[in-house]
Amino acid sequence: MMPEEFAEFARLHTALAPAPFVPEVRLHQAAEPMGLWELTEGEYRSEQPPPFWAFAWAGGQGLARFVLDRPEVVRGRRVLDLASGSGLVGVAAALCGAASVRAVDVDPVAVAVIGLNAAANGVTVTAERADLLDSDAGTAEVVLVGDAFYSKAMTERVTTFLRRAGRAGARVLAGDPDRPFLRREWFREAAAYDVPVPEVLEGVAVRHTTIWELR
Length: 215
Hints:
Layout: H1 3-13, E1 15-19, E2 22-29, H2 33-42, H3 58-69, E3 78-82, H4 88-95, E4 100-105, H5 108-120, E5 126-129, E6 142-146, H6 152-167, E7 171-176, E8 187-196, H7 199-202, E9 206-214
Parallel strand pairs: 3-4, 3-6, 4-5, 6-7
Antiparallel strand pairs: 1-2, 7-9, 8-9
Helix pairs in contact: 1-5, 3-4
């Protein structure tokens, strides 16, 4: 599929609406999560991960809220939004005056959706399809990652990347809804929120979400 086809697929299966915990940001969100999940696991199973881009996940919402409430964290700085999904965190950083925002995801539909969501909020975000986890954060001064610690293997790769970025001088912030894999000894708690989430995905209507800063 071409990029414009990915964007059209996203438009067809989502509606533009404010993120529940971050109403300053509008996102293309799926109204019926399971139907979209089944569709992307069907026609696109061989090349597509699940549609993380279609939902406002707790970690991303919490991290976006943190950034919007503390714009000095990103203002005037080069920002990397890792495993960006919908681009929520990157859009929040751009709204707060980041010098540049690079939003990276492995899913080509996510890359298209990040562009749609940036345009819907009147900001510029550079969306890129890539797996950076075995490389580095480039010139980023701030690295943001929301809800990427959802499996042991993913957590190990993401944490190694974040520690590498921190050693290179970047400030690293992660939003995590108390999933069991985060290595908390390498982080300090910066904030905590109770974030509304799609109950059909999370099994609860609200998830306690912590913002962690790499030590």
